[in-house]
């Protein structure tokens, strides 16, 4: 059943990254829910609602991003394309690349193969296969004492989820003891407090940087990239100082 139409918001237009007759991608801001959720009943704005009002037509989210994750979010503009894109995602034929800032020095590269339990729905607590490829892009050490350490260390990592489990990247990074900065509840509360106090930073440093797939109708290879959100870019500048764009494909 269609959700009721809400009045158009006064928010700034969502940044359009890609648009065709049957697909559109936005650069979702951190903090914006994709659609209604019983876990956030007080929220009145959603990406689906805002994009629908902006384009003046119905839109279908073909995947989801966590509320606190920014970056590429893809929508279909009709039911047939929505079904085709859902099939691509289900068959693992959509390649997604994320970038995150995490605690500590991560390995140069590794495969995280760690099954995860479902968080919600009728199959809650069912264990599912979950695999993520990690590549370290850059490391940094800053002169902030943390616990018994005189300095604090962080890594900028590229993450490619093979599977698409809820909160997969957040849970996998916590599992290998390199939680994403700003993540709650899977992250490190002490690190999150440090970033809030020293940098006035209160978001999660996870960015959906790129999505790639073959268009279901034309077979054209579609590659959509999202520029950094302002807060993510600010933190990269403070922590890594260099031109990280030159090392991120």
Automatic annotation (TrEMBL):
A GO term for molecular function: pseudouridine synthase activity
Keywords: Isomerase
InterPro entries listed in its UniProt record: PsdUridine_synth_cat_dom_sf (IPR020103), PsdUridine_synth_RsuA/RluA (IPR006145), RluA_PseudoU_synthase (IPR050188)
Gene Ontology biological process terms in this record: enzyme-directed rRNA pseudouridine synthesis
UniProt xrefs under Pfam families: PseudoU_synth_2 (PF00849)
Family matches, as SUPFAM superfamilies: Pseudouridine synthase
Pseudouridine synthase RsuA/RluA-like domain boundaries: 22-175
The keyword Isomerase is annotated on this UniProt entry: yes
The protein, known as: Pseudouridylate synthase
Organism, as annotated: Spirosoma profusum
